[in-house]
Amino acid sequence: MTVYREEIRDPFVMVAAWPLGVFSLGSFAVFFYQLFIGPVGEDPAPTWFWGLMGAVFLGTFWLVKGLTRLVIELTNEHLTVRFGILRSRIPWERVVEAREDERPVLSYWGVGLRFVRVGGRWVLAYVPGSRAKRVAVTLRGGVIRELVFATRDPGEVLKVIHEHLGERKGEVREA
Predict the structure, then answer these.
(1) Rounded CA gap, 78 and 91, in Å?
(2) Can you tell me the distance from the alpha carbon of 51 to that of 24, in angstroms, rounded to the nearest whole number?
(3) Taking a C-beta distance cutoff of 8 angstroms, is the pair 166, 160 a contact?
(4) CB 144 within 8 A of CB 122
(5) Which stretches of the chain are DSSP H helices?
(6) Which helix H or strand E contains 75, and what residues bound it?
(7) pLDDT tens for residues 29-39?
(8) Residue 172: pLDDT above 80?
(9) pTM (two decimals)
């Protein structure tokens, strides 16, 4: 059952995505023109080239467009952060602690999806914008020891995470 869900859209990424879509349409237009009507210009590029360029631009458009939406989902079983087709699903058993992230965004070497070494540990950061508030979740086990993600409401996210951590500690005490 979903306890908390949030979507953050970054319209500035679409500024980069739409030209890729336009280039894709243009490349496919030239591809089909050359395929069914005839060559474009006096020394045209091969028809397969335009088909390949259309496919490359379309694939890149699809990937970049996916990076316009960061989805945070907290359920009774796990914490999920999804950025386009990239997703991290962390079971609550791996979560040690959570806090609001106070580091400057440049400590992650920029915005977007970042896998960097910070303070001697590997961090996976989902940072769609430089001014976004962030939550840092410390993890046990695995290569990634910290998950950082942007949120509009860090207080609510931390409250839900701390509730799950408190429930787990209560279960451990009873055992």
Answers:
(1) 4
(2) 9
(3) no
(4) yes
(5) 11-36, 47-66, 154-174
(6) strand 69-75
(7) 999 999 999 99
(8) no
(9) 0.77
Rg for the chain, CA atoms, rounded = 22
Amino acid at 56: V
**In this predicted structure, which of 25-34, 37-46, 142-151, 159-168 has the lowest mean pLDDT?**
159-168
Using CA atoms of 23, 29, 31, 36 in order, give the dihedral in degrees to the nearest 10.
180
pLDDT tens across 88-139, in order? 999 999 999 999 998 887 888 777 788 899 888 899 998 877 677 899 999 9
Q: Are 57 and 24 in contact (CB under 8 A)?
A: yes
Question: Phi and psi at residue 103, in whole multiples of 5°?
Answer: -65, 150
Q: What is the phi/psi pair of residue 133, to 5°?
A: -75, 150
**Residue 2: strand, helix, or coil:** strand
Angle at 16 between CA 21 and CA 123, to 5 degrees: 120
- Cβ pair 153, 6 in contact under 8 A: yes
Separation CA 73–CA 81 (nearest Å) = 6
**Residue 175: its pLDDT value, please?**
31
pLDDT over 90 (residue 50): yes
